[in-house]
Design goal:
By secondary structure, the protein is α/β, with parallel strands linked by helices. It folds into two domains: 2-116, NAD(P)-binding Rossmann-like Domain (Rossmann fold), CATH 3.40.50.720; 134-211, Alpha-Beta Plaits (2-Layer Sandwich). 31% of the residues lie in helices and 25% in strands. The strands form two sheets. Strands 3-2-1-4-5-6 form a six-stranded parallel beta sheet, sandwiched between helices. It has a five-stranded antiparallel beta sheet with strand order 7-8-11-9-10. The longest helix is centred in the middle third of the chain and has 14 residues, at 76-89. The mean pLDDT is 88.
């Protein structure tokens, strides 16, 4: 994929390195030359100094050939402006903006932008650690689904995955067994000591917890 990133801070630089290492063609933009030091010597993409909403610069960097555009600077206004230009003016297929202010996140999501709100995600992660030790809701942004972790005990050992599934409430997706990760078939049997992870509907969390005595 051809991917353009605006902002070479901690998040932007790590994202650029990860994508570059995976073989994607990465272009990263930042207002400060020194920001590119975070990329080190392993980055093999294009690093350009300037504003992520400068139309002339974007054209020079071939934004029209990009498959995705991500803006992760430290400023909400910059991220939203750059993302709007990429999406509305240059028709980049996939555009994602980082937003710090949760109140803006919903507004701009309704305008058709893909929004990542670090503030909301971190708050949700802390909440889950405090209240639901084995449940994480931050993995699915809508909040309608989450992931729950179940330790297999005597009551459910030997059962098939299909017997654990609860239609429209809970679905087993991964089994961790002796440090190995298994994506199970419906007829796979659960062993004592397994750690089962499944997708759960948030509204059904209490029902699922009661069934598995969590």
């Amino acid at each position: 994929m051809n991917i353009m990133i605006v902002g070479c801070g901690r998040v932007g630089s790590q994202l650029a390195l990860l994508l570059s290492q995976e073989g994607h063609n990465v272009t990263i933009i930042d207002k400060k030359d020194e920001s590119f030091k975070r990329l080190g010597g392993s980055f093999n993409g294009v690093a350009a100094t300037g504003n992520g909403f400068d139309e002339k610069l974007l054209k020079e960097l071939k934004i029209d050939r990009q498959d995705a555009f991500v803006s992760v600077t430290s400023g909400d206004n910059t991220n939203l402006m750059a993302s709007q230009i990429a999406k509305k003016m240059f028709k980049v297929p996939r555009v994602i903006a980082r937003v710090y202010d949760p109140r803006r996140a919903d507004i701009y999501r309704k305008l058709g932008l893909d929004i990542i709100s670090g503030t909301i995600l971190v708050a949700a992660m802390i909440r889950d650690k405090l209240i639901e030790n084995r449940f994480t809701s931050y993995l699915v942004e809508t909040g309608e689904l989450g992931v729950i972790e179940i330790m297999v005990n005597e009551e459910i050992k030997g059962k098939k995955v299909s017997e654990l599934n609860m239609p429209d409430d809970f679905l087993v997706v991964v089994i961790e067994r002796k440090k190995k990760v298994i994506i199970p078939q419906p007829d796979a049997r659960i062993e004592l000591g397994d750690k089962v992870m499944g997708v759960v509907r948030t509204a059904s969390l209490d029902k699922v917890k009661n069934r598995f005595n969590i």
